[in-house]
Structures are given as structure tokens and as C-alpha cells.
Amino acid sequence: MSGRNLTIILLAILVALVAIVIGWWIGQKPKSELPVEVVVPVEPIPEGTGVLIDLYFPGGGTQLVAEQREVPRESETDKQLTRLLQELTAGPESIELYAPLPEEITVGWTHINPANVAYIDLDFADEAARPAWGSGHEILSIYSIVNTVLLNLPEITSVILLSNGQQRPTFAGHLDTSRPLLANLNLIAAAEP
């Protein structure tokens, strides 16, 4: 074997050894440079566990005032909707606020359709009578219900209010209720610091 062939073989062995060492060294580098996705399992909150809700009651002026309460969490949205409406129609704890509906109007049935629109039926003791509300009173009463539902149950997209099973074009002649209603944040009073 000539000296030249021996040099080529030694050089090839040296290159192979360097490649092995570099490969080993790269394999030893920490993996922190690679993005790591950490999955933290989210455990569902058990039914009956308390949840804070904001009920929006008409105040002395032209705005709705949030009153916070803790209620049991329900397992299904329709049950939580019923709970919200029960709390709202029970009236406010503060003497500066008033209930959105008079005693002769009660919540009948509720339904959430596949498009997540909530239907809320208001039962009128006198089916032919309209509430004696002025425009401001009607707006605050209707949006007390709508805002309470939509701001506590974000999965619900809009609210349709019914009267004794029928959709009315208006309840007291001032507000168009012939369409699905969305939350009106402009009616909510700013929280006091």
C-alpha cells in the first residue's frame, strides 16, 4: 500500500470520526429550542358549584345597573337560562333598583334553538293588555332581560321575546321586538370605583 493510499484512508477515518462526534454533540443539545406544546387538562366545573352572574336591573335613571350574585352552576345552558331568569324576576337586592317586570307578567317557558337563539315567553295575566310603560321603561325592562341573558351566557347569540306564546311587534308601543334582540351595552351604567 502506497503512502498516498494510506493518507486517504486515514483522512476518511478522521472525517468519519469528526462526523460521529458532531452528530453526538448535536444530539446532546437541550431540546428547549423546539416549541413545546403543554396541554393542561381542563376539568369541568361540577354542576352545583357556585358561579358569579351579573343581573341587569333598571335603576332610577335611564340605565341598567349590574347586581352580582352567586348561583349554582347548571350542567346545561337551558337550565342556566332558567336560573338566570328566576334570579332576575325575583327582583334586586338593592332598594335603588327595581324589577324589570311587574307582578302580572311572569316568565313562562324558554327554548334555545340550534342556532343558539333563546326564546323567552312572557306570560301576561291579561293577554290583551299592554304594559303601561313609557319608552324608557319599556327599553330598560326589555334589555334587563336581554342583557342579563346574553352577557352571562355568551353561547346564546340573541333573544326573541314572546308574549303568551306569540311574538309581538312591540310590548308597549315603543321598542321593536319583532326581531331577535342583541345586548345593548350603552344602557349599562358604569361601575362605581
Key terms:
193 residues, alpha+beta, rod-shaped
Describe this structure in words.
With 193 residues, this protein is α+β, with helices and mostly antiparallel strands. Strand 4 (117-124), helix 3 and strand 5 form a beta-alpha-beta unit. It contains three helices and five strands; from the N terminus they run H-E-E-H-E-E-H-E. Helix 2 packs antiparallel against helix 3. The longest helix is centred in the first third of the chain and has 26 residues, at 3-28. Residues 30-43 have low confidence and may be disordered. It is rod-shaped. It has one domain. Strands 3-4-5 form a three-stranded mixed beta sheet, covered by helices on one side. It has a two-stranded antiparallel ribbon with strand order 1-2. The termini are far apart.
Give the arrangement of secondary structure elements.
Layout: H1 3-28, E1 50-58, E2 64-72, H2 77-89, E3 105-112, E4 117-124, H3 135-152, E5 158-163
Parallel strand pairs: 4-5
Antiparallel strand pairs: 1-2, 3-4
Helix pairs in contact: 2-3
Task: Give the structure's gist in a few sentences.
By secondary structure, this protein is of the alpha+beta class. Helix content is 30%, strand content 21%.
Q: Output the number of helix runs.
A: 3
The SS-based structural class is alpha+beta
What's the Cα radius of gyration? 32 Å
Percentage of residues in strands:
15-25%
Which shape, going by the Cα principal axes? rod-shaped
Count of beta strands? 5
Number of domains: 1
